[in-house]
Amino acid sequence: MVDHVAKENVNQVVDIGKGESGDGERGPEGGGRGYELPLLLFGGFRTLIDRLHARLATEGHPDLRPAHGFAMQAIGARGATASEIGRRLGVSKQAAGKTVDRLLALGYAERADDPADARRKLVHLTPRGYAALARSAAIFDELRAEWAATLGADRVRDLEAALRNVVPAETAFRLDATSWLGAP
Q: Is the pTM of this model over 0.85?
């Protein structure tokens, strides 16, 4: 994803709105402006995901992309059809199929007949796919520990607890980010 073009922030609408009042007021209750919260949350997400993928690249997974991680989670331990993967990700069967094809080519997934219905093809993770997910989980633990070392363990726990309070349980672990961020 392109963040900056020629050292200029791509989000020009937000840039234009910064500092217009000139009075130093930041927003309600002395906090940030309303648009800052989602941008900071997304920036935190991007920071973690970018650092994860940089680490994965050095550890034998240079071709894995964030969309692949979401797709591998959507495949799950029992496998899934391309249609099921698409529904779980909030993308078309064709878009899911393209991502699955890439995972197959990279050796992270494989297709097999569904034992319950020979007309269906299930996508399963390979040992390489499971290894990448296990490494990702371990790296996320390390990145969380870095945040705890920087911010303090209590603040990170408080942040997580606060987010659990405001994020509806049914959406907390949804995988379909591409449905509102655009197709992969």
A: no
